[in-house]
Specification:
Helix content is 41%, strand content 8%. It contains ten helices and five strands. Strands 2-1-3-5-4 form a five-stranded antiparallel β-sheet, covered by helices on one side. Helix 4 packs across helix 10, helix 5 crosses helix 6 and helix 7 packs across helix 8. The protein is globular, with a radius of gyration of 18 Å. It starts with 7 loop residues before the first helix and ends with a helix.
């Protein structure tokens, strides 16, 4: 399974906004964007004072990078998602966001089992979750309405999941998902709409980037 290995805080600094890649740390004073709100690198501090107008291509590229890094997807896989989104009916940008939201690791994160998408991805790859009663260790597995995600029976007694159960309810679950804290299961009720996806992204710029 391919994954990005670069420091995630540098990703946020490079994109100039919080991508919420480190869970609770992103909401604390330790957040790198709050402490050093300029691009990383030797001349990063100087770049924030340069009045250089970004090109159309530069804006499209940066928006594509923000979206890809938010969901922790590599470039080749992200490109495949875009091609699939373009084949579907409806707006390509919205279709792309819906595909990314339907990834198993993202749904585990949305249900509150992982503080960040990267943590949720690790939990899935270690085999801690079932999909429709069968163990699934593929973070990129795409779910559809009616699919049920649950903590694997052998994992429910782990200290981590016991701690998660105690903190359930502190994070709001999206309306397109239903959650049962007692049975430690979640269900995808329907596909999310654009208004229900709280990602600060201009997806039209991503579409323009790949339509060049």
């Amino acid at each position: 399974m391919g994954r990005a290995t670069e420091p995630v805080c540098k990703m946020c600094r490079r994109e100039g906004k919080k991508l919420f890649l480190k869970g609770e740390r992103c909401f604390s004073v330790k957040c790198a964007v709050e402490r050093r709100g300029y691009p990383p690198g030797e001349h990063g501090y100087e770049q924030q004072y340069r009045r250089q107008r970004p090109t159309a291509y530069g804006m499209q590229f940066r928006e594509k990078q923000r979206l890809r890094r938010t969901y922790g997807v590599l470039e080749s896989q992200f490109r495949r998602y875009y091609r699939e989104a373009a084949r579907r009916t409806g707006l390509t940008g919205t279709n792309l966001l819906v595909i990314l939201e339907c990834r198993l690791d993202n749904i585990v994160h949305r249900l509150g089992w992982g503080a960040s998408r990267s943590q949720a991805r690790q939990l899935v790859s270690h085999g801690h979750f079932d999909v429709n009663g069968k163990r699934c260790d593929i973070p990129s597995a795409l779910l559809k309405p009616g699919d049920v995600v649950s903590v694997h029976p052998t994992s429910r007694s782990m200290p981590y999941f016991k701690q998660v159960v105690e903190t359930l309810g502190q994070r709001a679950v999206p309306v397109w998902l239903s959650f049962d804290g007692v049975d430690m299961t979640g269900r995808m009720a329907t596909y999310p709409t654009r208004e229900e996806i709280d990602v600060d992204i201009n997806e039209q710029l991503v579409v323009e980037y790949y339509s060049r």
